[in-house]
Amino acid sequence: MDFAFTTIQEFNDYFKDDKTCYQFLEAQRWPDGPVCPHCGSTKKPYSVTPRGKQKDIPTYRCSERSCDLPFTVRTHSIFDGSNVPLRKWFQAVYEISTSKKGISSKELGTRIGVSQKTGWLMNHKIRNMLADTAPKLLGETDMVQADETYVGGKNKNRHKDKKIEGSQGRSAADKTPVVGLIEKGGRVMTFVTPNTDADTLNEIINNNVAEGATIVTDAYRSYATIGNAYTHITVKHEDGGYVVEDNGRKFHTQNIENFWSQLKRGYVGIYHYMSPKHLHRYCNEFATRYNLRDVSNIARFLHVVRNADVEKITYRKLTAKA
Ligand SMILES: [Zn+2]
Asked: Hey, what domains does the chain have and what are their CATH numbers?
């Protein structure tokens, strides 16, 4: 598809009306023609002519006798069950996937012309689309840095985030731990965890890092039990060292620390508060933005739109008590 933009104006010019957006989404989701979202049939569906406001929206009815249900390209996608025009959804995807530091629900609502509550729901749904749907093992091409950080807590406690001796800076009664793995020059993965015990950290590492990889951590004691399957290099920050040299190679945890800085700047500057329940979504959003850092705005937008076929999240589900 001939499709290019570098600014929001060009983006809005391209997606000039809802019909264009539907046709675009169809080309992305159904490259070989419509697929019934109810029964999966690829048999050519009947075209339906809707009335009123919906008259320009491509609408179908499944031609399988046992199914016979109506659908559009939005059915059973992240855009389903919403009165917000697809064009506004696309604008929201653009805003969220291209903003460097994230965007608050209120700001999103203002920019695309929906209420804050609607903006909040769209924000969460799009973040869900941003999740890595086919993660691969880390560490096959370069060293992996493992580290954890603490997010949240009351504003008044934030400046008291000082190091306690021997804790490697871990002092966080009312904060939520996030464990991060980053491949130098590659991808980052984040995990919101109940604690930072050795068992928790080892399980995450064993499930996500390729055997034989080199893992770099600081001297936190939970990392002391990383198994023989890995080469473990410890950087002792307390001794003033930030780089360990071994056979002419330099090992450090700078990449994951830079990622935490980005996450925390987003937290403080944009979102002000992330509830522990939704923290993994925000972490996914930041991780995806990092992992797609070298791709164009177009590719980033397409990545999100092509992942539209995910399990539906409803407002009720998002607001349910954990
Ligand atoms: Zn069907």
From this structure: 8-30+73-131+296-319 (no CATH), 144-274 (3.30.420)
Determine the distance separating the centroid of ligand 1 and the alpha carbon of 89, expressed in angstroms.
Answer: 26
CA of 44 to the centre of ligand 1 (A): 10
Q: How far is the CA of 60 from the centre of ligand 1 (A)?
A: 10
Residue 283 has phi, psi (to 5 degrees) of -60, -40
Question: Distance of CA 94 to CAs 11, 24, 233, 279, Å?
Answer: 8, 14, 40, 22
Confidence label for 168 from pLDDT (cuts 50, 70 and 90): very low
Q: What is the pLDDT averaged over residues 119-138?
A: 78
Helix (H) or strand (E) holding 128: helix 116-130
Please give the distance, rounded to the nearest whole angstrom, from the Cα atom of residue 19 to the centre of ligand 1: 23
| Token pair for 43 | 């048999």
Query: Rounded mean pLDDT of 55-79?
Result: 92
How remote is the CA of residue 226 from the centroid of ligand 1, in Å? 50
> pLDDT tens-digit profile of 233-246?
999 876 666 788 88
Question: What is the residue whose two structure tokens read 């979504």?
Answer: 281
Predicted confidence band of residue 176 (pLDDT cuts 50, 70, 90): confident
